Amino acid sequence: MKLLVTGGCGFIGSTFVRMALARGHEVVNVDKLTYAGNPANVAEVADDPKYHFVHADIADAPAMADALTGVDAVVNMAAESHVDRSILDPAAFPMTDVVGTAVILDQSRRAGVGRFVQVSTDEVYGSIPVGLFRETDPLNPSSPYSASKAGGDLQALAWHHTYGMDVVVTRGSNTYGPRQYPEKLIPLFVTNALDGEQLPVYGDGQQIRDWIHVEDHCSGVFAALEHGIAGEVYNVGGGNERTNLEITERILEYTNRDASLIRYVEDRLGHDRRYALATEKLSLLGWSAAVDFGTGLTDTVTWYRDNRAWWEPIKSGEYRAYYDEQYGQR
Ligand code: NAD
Ligand code: DAU
User: Fold this and answer.
1) For 107-124, how does the pLDDT look when each residue is reduced to its tens digit (9 = 90+)?
2) What would the pLDDT profile of 200-243 be if each residue is shown by its tens digit?
């Protein structure tokens, strides 16, 4: 297939691009190169004749019309993706996550694209104290980020309902692995711990997330792309619930640091307590998560230890201003 992947210079997108090329697909990577988009993430495939890069915003209709020529399927990963940034600067999020999604959906419809996969998040369901969210549960997003992503899901499903477009939606859980921008919990805490800096745990650290390795998340998106039913939603969860404090303690152990680096700080506004997903529907398509969490996390720590040249320039740039704004008063 000729796949158009958006956000392919980001964390999950760049993994998906590499996996798609390895599976023999041709890939058009459309990326705006925001602070989170890093060409180094796809450097090893940049010269592959089946790989094409388009530097564009998914909200730019003429650019999307051009990029979509001859494309069989679209995987829309581009997003503003960080909850804390959505609390600091909420208006930026609907521009890409809702409006951008609507623009690329509509250009895909006009171009006659065969299938459109909207990559979404478990956060659209909101927080769940016990049990698991199913695909039929109502949307109840809490943060400006998750509200924007829910808007994107609804746009995608509306294009199926209204125009009969072949759309599937995936809702992934918290994803970890190499090349994740060091603003998210795991890469932030790993890189801070490697540098002997404090780890800012929000509130009591007892919030629960369901962690999935980035390759398992991507294989779930492939399952939905290749075998999903048009108009359906598929949860992509790791079945791997951990408190933030457990994640923090494991990172301290794997980086040979001690608990003196933990700093309990003011909680995130509107902080969701727990996410958890039922994944039977995706399993019926033949998918299962393959990466053991202990192995995946130690490999991730090793990757950050061995790739300082990837994250040190990030942490000294625009990131510094963000870090001071986010953590300076906490
Ligand atoms: P990321 O922030 O690492 O990367 C986002 C990418 O999108 C960047 O390369 C950025 O340059 C690009 N981008 C942003 N706005 C754009 C625009 N308007 N036009 C074109 N490109 C644009 O994000 P990620 O963590 O890899 O997440 C990828 C997708 O998966 C997102 O849709 C996110 O909501 C979803 N998701 C992420 C997680 C997670 O834990 N990271 C979990 C579930 C779902
Ligand atoms: O659940 C899927 C979502 O997971 C994705 O849709 C988002 O794109 C992704 O960013 C992630 O959102 P979270 O808010 O859950 O991830 P984050 O890594 O920012 O935080 C994970 C948990 O760790 C959360 O409970 C907040 C906490 N945390 C985070 C940071 C950055 C801290 O305690 N301290 C921190 O400094």
Assistant:
1) 999 999 999 999 999 999
2) 999 999 999 999 999 999 999 999 999 999 999 999 999 999 99
Q: Both 24 and 46 in a single domain?
A: yes
Q: Are residues 192 and 130 in the same domain?
A: no
Instruction: Answer positive or negative: Cα dihedral of 82, 84, 89, 90.
Output: positive
- Per the structure, the complete domain to which residue 112 belongs is given by 2-175+211-236
CA of 122 to the centre of ligand 2 (A): 12
Q: Would residue 48 show up in a list of annotated catalytic residues for this protein?
A: no
> pTM, whole model, 2 decimals?
0.98
Q: Measured in angstroms, how far is the CA atom of residue 3 from the centroid of ligand 2?
A: 29
32 lines ligand 2 (CB under 6 A): no
- Looking at the fold, whether 263 and 115 belong to one and the same domain comes out as no
Which alpha helices (H) appear in the chain, and where do they start and end?
Answer: 11-22, 61-67, 83-88, 92-94, 101-111, 144-163, 185-194, 214-227, 244-254, 280-283, 293-306, 308-316, 318-327
Active site residue 123: yes
Cβ neighbours for 229, distance < 8 A, ≥ 6 positions apart? 168
pLDDT recorded at residue 289 = 98
The CATH number of whichever domain residue 53 belongs to comes to 3.40.50.720
Q: Sign of dihedral through CA atoms 160, 166, 171, 177?
A: negative
Report if residue 124 sits inside a domain. Answer: yes
Tokens of 230: 């048009």
Q: Is residue 100 part of a domain?
A: yes
How much distance in Å is there from the Cα of 248 to the middle of ligand 1? 24
Whether residue 248 sits in one domain with residue 129: no
The catalytically annotated residue of 51, 145, 254, 304 is 145
Q: Mean per-residue pLDDT for 294-305? A: 98
